[in-house]
Amino acid sequence: MFILTKVGMTMLISAIKDCVGSRMRTLGSVSVGSRRRNAVLHSLKMVPVFAILLFLFCASPVEPRMTDAKEQRTVIKFLVSMGATPIQCWQKLREGCGASTLSKNTVRVWHKRFSQGEQSTKDRARSGRPRTARNAEMIQRVSDIVTADRRVKVRDIAEQLPIGKTSVHKILKKDMSLTKVSPKLVPRLLTDEQKRFRMRMCQLNLDSLKQDSDFIHKFVTRDESWVSVFEPELKKNASQWQPKGQAHLRPQKAIRQRSAKKAMITVFFTTSGVVLAEFLPPGETVCAENYCDLLRRLKENLRRKRPDMWVGRKFFLHHDNVPPHTAVLTLAFIGSSDIEMVPHLPYSPDLAPSDFFLFPRLKNEVRGHRFQNVRDMKTGILRALRTIPPAHFEEALMSLPVRWMKCISAEGEYFEGRHLHVDPGDFDLVFMSGSEETSDDSSEEDP
Fold this sequence. Notes:
Blueprint: H1 6-27, H2 34-45, H3 47-58, H4 69-81, H5 86-97, H6 104-115, H7 136-148, H8 154-160, H9 165-175, H10 192-211, E1 219-228, E2 262-270, E3 273-279, H11 288-305, H12 307-311, E4 316-318, H13 323-326, H14 328-336, E5 340-341, H15 353-366, H16 374-386, H17 390-398, H18 400-409, H19 424-445
Parallel strand pairs: 1-4, 4-5
Antiparallel strand pairs: 1-2, 2-3
Helix pairs in contact: 1-2, 1-3, 1-5, 4-5, 4-6, 5-6, 8-9, 10-18, 11-14, 15-16
């Protein structure tokens, strides 16, 4: 429901009083002709209509001011029909609109138009300047420049063409639907042969999983990493909540360097958690003899911590292809211990649980904390390693089948950060069909 404001009421009463009084004085004059008298009478008949119209524009449920230019033009049209002068129209608008009133020159222009018989309150159509910045020819020229150099800057395109940077930006965003993205840093630009090898190994692992449903649970992965006494805190870890609109109050943080004191940790883990974690003694290097001793301790820990894996005395070991792991002594020990190897994929942190889960998680736990010495650092790292729940290890390793499928879908490329739709149901279907084939084969062998 509209409420007539005080400003609107004052404007309405004043306009009607002035215009009606002027017309009555005109009718009282003896010298007025009949044609002039009829025009005056016709305008008086229109007073109620324009009064109602003025009431609707001056009445508002919330805001008493008329800020719309079209509404003010309608009022000017009414006042012109009542015989008001341009300055009188502006004064009446000033009373009702305040600071948002049209300028005197604008009121004069519309007063002249309505006096000449114009009825529309809309702006007249203007031919204007022809579009020369965002036409088909200019869009094609921008497209040719971008096709030749995908890294070209908006400023460089504007310098080559007779258009501004704003027009170039609109062409790129709106007309060509382009957006500029930064490249994703990857460990290596893979060759076609490396991509095919990644796909082949992923398919081999999926086949192994189809043949043995406990393949992941028998999976023991191993890796090593250097850990410093001080790991600098990442920028995102130092983010703080600030009130909106106070970006200039961003906290400052000094650039820190990683400590030179460090030690190498080697971790073996399964779906149940860490089986063996040791630091390399100072002054020693990883060699075939040391690695064989490490594998012996691994087997002993499996016997104590994972008796389910020790019953068959066979598990799948995954480690990288560094020389101590491929030495003749190491291969002979692995063969005599009935350990089956899982092929390692070089330059593949997206397929190594230690790279996409364990070590990033472990180092984030101690980032920003400065240990007193290497001994304290080792104690802190082992303590942080024990705080990781076993369910997180299982979740990381159980994600490997999906990652293998994504690698195959990406045709061997790095898939992290890419929107690849892999339906786990597809693997379940393949796994079920593989299990049925296995069961059928076993039934044929057993009479």
